[in-house]
From TrEMBL:
Domain of life: Bacteria
InterPro entries found in the cross-reference section: BphY/WalK/GraS-like, HATPase_C_sf, HATPase_dom, His_kinase_dom, HisK_dim/P_dom, HisK_dim/P_sf, Sig_transdc_His_kin-like_C
Taxonomic placement: Bacteria, Bacillati, Actinomycetota, Actinomycetes, Micrococcales
UniProt-annotated location(s): Cell membrane
GO cellular component: plasma membrane
Domain Histidine kinase: 154-370
Keywords, comma-separated and alphabetical: Kinase, Membrane, Phosphoprotein, Transferase, Transmembrane, Transmembrane helix, Two-component regulatory system
PROSITE patterns in alphabetical order: HIS_KIN (PS50109)
Positions of transmembrane segments: 6-29
Protein name: Sensor-like histidine kinase SenX3
Keyword hit for 4Fe-4S: no
Catalytic activity: ATP + protein L-histidine = ADP + protein N-phospho-L-histidine
Residue ranges with Basic residues bias: 379-395
Length: 408
């Protein structure tokens, strides 16, 4: 091998050795940099930007559980940069994730302001010293799920009662076929139970329709006077039978945008409740107050009233403040729930005032609209055609001047 060839071989060997050394040096530098990053408390680039773009509460904490970065929703749970991670249960989730070196999740309760919220917390280790925690508020989801389970359970229970009664009465009629008086008595009870079953089924369907995502389809400008008159008329027979007078007072000529059938049923349910829970000889008041923005329809009774502890729940499906009385009056426990959802579907609200022994007032508030062209509110230039007096006006309903102040 001549000198030229030896030189080429030497250069090749040197290049190989040099390249290997260079690769080893580069690997060592990268390992050192990675170890330095992992050992530091510096956040990876873009971490804060990612957190600020999140709709859920999320924070990054260090090994001592100090918050280094937080999303905006996390501040509602009192998690701010520089603060200590709140809640021992949440801290335990982080420690478990760090020990296992894998994401850990748990369902727990965290304080948000003055209330406790049900949340799911997931902790993920992003470096040996940094942990990401994502918190999802599931309070409303759990509430809706519980309502769904209660609805299915309560509906099944409520339907079993009249169905079972109808079955027994049918058997009783068959057994008493030779006794006309007994047959008539059982037949009357059978008819009552069938009516109750039909009413319950109808109300369940109405409530389901009101709770569906579909918009109301029969919308038009609705006369509040028409709604109130129809609601009172629907309860006039029950009121006469109980010796209760329904008194109508307040403003006239107000209009709202809505479904007349749905609104009439809602106000009719309030009147029916007032009649059912009033003593014989009492009065039920239906008053209307309106301004240029809102119309209020208040139904007042002087009945037994509702205890304060039950007032938050009376609008729930199948909930009855007085179970025994509701059974006697044939109540389904769905009337007030229908009222709430009907009013909400019209963009309004319903409010309850009640005191045990002094009675209750349910007030429905809806947005007013301009009257149609061929009608007129008192004081405007348009005139409203005169109507013939309604000679068939129910005896249980009378007009009186509106009263002011609370129903007490």
């Amino acid at each position: 091998m001549d000198s030229t060839q030896l030189a080429i071989v030497a250069l090749a060997v040197g290049a190989v050795i040099g390249g290997g050394l260079a690769a080893l040096v580069l690997l060592a530098l990268r390992t050192r940099d990675r170890a330095r990053v992992e050992a530091s408390l510096e956040l990876p680039d873009g971490t804060r930007a990612v957190l600020q773009g999140m709709d859920e509460a999320a924070v990054v904490v260090d090994a001592s559980l100090q918050v280094l970065a937080a999303s905006a929703p996390a501040e509602l749970f009192d998690m701010h940069e520089g603060s200590s991670l709140p809640g021992e249960e949440l801290r335990a989730v982080v420690r478990a994730a760090r020990r296992a070196a894998r994401p850990e999740s748990a369902t727990l309760r965290l304080r948000r302001g003055v209330e406790q919220r049900l949340v799911t917390a997931r902790a993920s280790v992003i470096t040996p010293r940094l942990t990401l925690i994502v918190i999802r508020d599931i309070t409303e989801h759990e509430r809706v799920e519980q309502m769904r389970r209660d609805f299915v359970s309560n509906t099944s229970h409520e339907l079993k009662t009249p169905v079972g009664a109808i079955t027994l009465l049918a058997e009783a009629i068959d057994s008493a076929a030779d006794d006309p008086d007994q047959v008539r008595r059982f037949a009357a009870r059978l008819s009552a139970e069938a009516s109750r079953l039909g009413q319950l089924t109808s109300r369940i369907m109405n409530l389901s329709r009101l709770q569906s995502a579909d918009d109301l389809t029969e919308l038009r400008d609705v006369s509040v006077d028409e709604v109130v008159a129809a609601a009172i008329e629907s309860q006039s027979i029950a009121a006469d039978a109980a010796g209760i007078a329904i008194v109508r007072g307040g403003a006239r000529g107000a209009y709202v945008r809505g479904d007349v059938q749905v609104l009439t049923e809602a106000i009719g349910n309030l009147v029916a409740n007032a009649v059912a829970y009033s003593p014989p000889g009492a009065q039920v008041g239906v008053g209307v107050k309106a301004d240029d923005r809102v119309v209020e329809i208040a139904v007042t009774d002087r009945g037994i009233g509702i205890p304060e502890g039950d007032q938050e729940r009376v609008f729930e499906r199948f909930y009855r403040a007085d179970q025994a009385r509701s059974r006697r009056t044939g109540g389904t426990g769905l009337g007030l729930s229908i009222v709430k959802h009907a009013v909400q579907r019209h963009g309004g609200e319903v409010e309850l005032w009640s005191r045990p022994g002094r009675g209750s007032t349910f007030t429905v508030r809806l947005s007013v609209v301009e009257p149609p062209e061929n009608t007129l509110v008192k004081g405007s230039r348009r005139t409203k055609p005169k109507k013939q007096k309604n000679k068939s006006k129910p005896k249980a309903a009378r007009d009186v001047a509106p009263t002011k102040g609370d129903p007490s």
